[in-house]
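Help: why these numbers?

___
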Amino acid sequence: MTSKQLLPSRDIASRSFKATACALAVSAVLSAPLAIAQENQETPETSESASQALQEAQARGTLERIEVTARRTTESLQEVPIAVTSVSGNELQNIGAQVITELQQFSPNTTLQTSRGTNSTLTAFIRGVGQQDPLWGYEPGVGIYVDDVYIARPQGAVLDILDVQRIEVLRGPQGTLYGKNTIGGAVKYVTKEMSGDTEFNAQATLGSYSQQDVKITGQLPIIEDQLYLGVGYANLTRDGYGTYLRSALDGQDRENYNKDLWAARVSLEYRPSDDLFFRLAWDKTEDTSNAKGGYRLLPSLLTDAPVPDKVYDSYTSLPTFNEVDLEGWSWLVRYDVNENLELKYIGSDREGYSPTNIDFDNTSLDIFDVPAEYRDENTTHELQANYAGDSYKIVSGLYYYDGESCGNFNAILGFLGRAAFGVPGLTREVAGCNNSESWAVYTQASFDITENLSMTLGARYTDEEKTAIVNNGLVFYNLYPATGWVPGFVRPEGQLVPTVLGSDSNGDGVLDAPKSDSWQRFTPRVGLEYSLDEDTLIFASFAQGFKSGTFNPRAEQNEPGVNPEIVDSYELGLKRDWNSQLRTNLTLFSYDHKDRQYIAVGGAGDGTTLNQSLQNAAETAGSGLEAEITYVATDNLTFDFSLGILNFDIKRNDVIPPLIGLSNSPEHTANLAATYVLDTDVGYFTFNANYYYRDDYLLFETSELLEQDGYGLVNLSVNWESVEGNWYANLTAKNITDEEYLVGGYNFVGPEDASGNLTPGLGGDTTLIGYFGDPRTVHLTVGYRF
């Protein structure tokens, strides 16, 4: 574990990375692949276990075809003229991956991390573009999709890996085929279609911090060769990495960074003929892990809360309960009209509810507490037509989205209210909804110009209307979202705070209508592809994407909506299989990011006030390189290497406080890994090792107080499968060197005084808080399938 000293200065949150000689040796000798490069896509007709098929393919010592649906049709990865990483479910199993955030290690210039405060909220950035604040009304910059169904909110988007066929990471704007809120890229979670046979898979995992996981999946034919029922269930538990050292509620230690989650999925598939396919699926996730407490990087000035000895320890004056409750239905109809034309209808209906407690100051006093609730409901419908001719392909469709996103949070500054104003407490309560209705029409065509030269033209037109209302005001006591939120609390009835968006502007006692606005956007894509030979693709493209216009969910006055963010992106790429052993995929990119939506903080922007307004306040630009290289060294040994380079430039900077860099986006990311397959009389062994490096990065784009220095993670795993393919096991060790690295935080401090020490911020304390990634863990999984 890296040692450090935390000082009240600008470098207070820096984390120094010092790779040990052992770590460097392991990474240099062992590193590189998921079978990112050796995946054979599973099909319903596959009878043997997929991992055995993978091992046999590796034993042949050749590169394998990887199939993806990045352009909404099935294609070879090497034929797709965009930057995309695809990781199969079998490879995820081989490396012991358990949640979707682990994919960031294998996709260059990608950040997928668990956000601050909860175990299930996702922070996603690709090429420096994303959205940090998970408050309702803010739109993500990276789209998350499960079987082509859009997951609209970051709450619950840290998906546990269950019954997955593959996960694809598409880098760069995907505005034509995937629509709004994919200006950074998209992450596609693809579940397995059923084979039609009776199948059963059960696995149990034991690991560090009393980890105890159970996963069960299976399928059963109801009508042979026509109607199938599939089920999946997971129960995932783990003790906390740390504890709440003190709580004002009961004085007892409680787990911090624990996990208590279950998830279930039921699907029904019907194939009345070879040309027609129906699927109806239901899923539910309930996460009751404790709300996460942050690590105080500075001792409290107001109470006995020194910097804890462990970065996973915390203090709190709030209850520790937290819940993420998600449920949804999805459906798919696919009809092959003829050998050229395919029609699809994809629909979904989803809802989520998340009550949580976030103690911003992380002390046993009510200095800055934020209990909150989030509610989300949305319905989507998509009609798609795909046509493949002799020298062209066309993907086109109609899309409709109707969503309601609501929430409320209470910024409780009770200690300040009693000390400064002599009142029982002080609360700024904010509550409201930000509802969206949008439709889009899109088409994208790829056609041959000559035998070697082809062109891609795409366009999408989106029409979106949003309606918002925000209630925002002060009460002079501690106010919680509901009766019983803390012991003995009874919430008063009636309107408690003034209405901001939708106010009584003419004083007639009747609230004005909620604020509404609409935006229309045309997002094109143009590309040229040249096949130098059957193994080499050179491509160049221009693509545009946009993130929705919106209203300020923290508005304190009747604010207008802000315009969408726009990203114009240019790419130049080369995909080549040099022979049966070496594959190189390279992409150069640059982009302009316009009309960026930023909160302008009132006052001096020094963390001492909550006064805020949302504005299109900045324009930035980025450029860089992404490389993914696979080398099949021998019949048994394969290496993979990936590298991401990201440069950043500020072109307009009207943000208060001003931008100084990118959030959660290092200038360099790299992964070096190795896979070795061993065939023995007792089964197949797959050994995996990888070393993943992230350069230094800021947690907030406007402050260098929370900055993570460069660090590296060493991971090792061994996977065994019996000769018959029914029994399997996996032993995985992650973050072997026990690196400590920031993934989130809060910054509410004032400016430095004459001695260079940070002064108190909002709430009257020095609130500088960090949240950290997982420590060293080891887990063993044993499974049986038939």
In short: Residues 21-785 form a domain with the Maltoporin; Chain A fold (CATH 2.40.170.20). The radius of gyration is 26 Å. The chain has one domain: 21-785.
